[in-house]
């Protein structure tokens, strides 16, 4: 999966159109790479988004996440929601009913696609999917507000609140299902906060138990961050039998079968034993445990530092993206991490020897040192994005490449000086009035 461009409008703090373009200059006016080159040669593998607190940085990532979730869930879990999920610009009441618009240009399996849709309070307004054929766009799917679908066989109409691409996946449509699958599986959105870390750690445990991740691989990630961890294992704690029995009785009662199924001799039948086995698996609490140093001191997951857990959670996502060529989207890169670790991650995505799959990293951050990180020689300015709110509270997205800079400009220093905007206008002197008020 290669993300070329993401365009959106009317999503949270973004009222007007914002274009997040990850292509390098030679590809901006071409439909395909120059002969003898690859798609990966003409896109940024790292793009950073900067701005003041509450400027809307995270809302850019949220818009991308929303589009991906709509593609994944609009024909399944969203259909049961009391209202159609959406997040319009809320500071102008006259614009609340306007549709949100989302457009993804991407490369999947060597072909360039353009997928777009718009949605309002009632559901999907329109939708289209195009692919580049012989140096021109060809429409694969077109859908209108009333749910009529054209240009694709086997899918004539869809519900008002579902995307045709999502419905096609539910039907295992031969032509469209693989495209939708690539979009859903080609991105990994890493949100900021403890909840995300806990969810990632739980997933790590499952991968270790299922064999999708090796223990020595996780130890190697821990060693990269100099955590002192020498061994990692999974501890399992099974729920008592009486707890499982009570829970099974509750399930049977909910299903209208309060009587326990038994054989003539009073012993549980095979179905009951199978249910007990399933409950036993579900009622096993699994947690990571760690061994430190030469003395082999053991610590449980809850005793480890926040930074160590954040590194393992994000590090496994980075490893997966680099191995499988995914687009990793990280909100607040560096949260709970030492700056050196953030720079290491950026370097990995920039290094073609490490990033052989062409994976991409998109992140928000306040760490100015990352603006000059990476080992590549490409123009760094195009990889830096700035978000700032106007007088009406609407976020605006600007690329640093639009500014006239000298070749050896100290970009981090100039950014902190406010040369490009997208910095907070702080009023630290107000602390005096607050302290005086407390003393009255």
Automatic annotation (TrEMBL):
InterPro entries: ATPase_AAA_core, P-loop_NTPase
Superkingdom, natural source: Bacteria
MF (Gene Ontology): ATP binding; ATP hydrolysis activity
Residue span, ATPase AAA-type core domain: 49-371
Database matches in Gene3D superfamilies: P-loop containing nucleotide triphosphate hydrolases
One Pfam match: AAA_21
Name recorded for this polypeptide: AAA domain protein
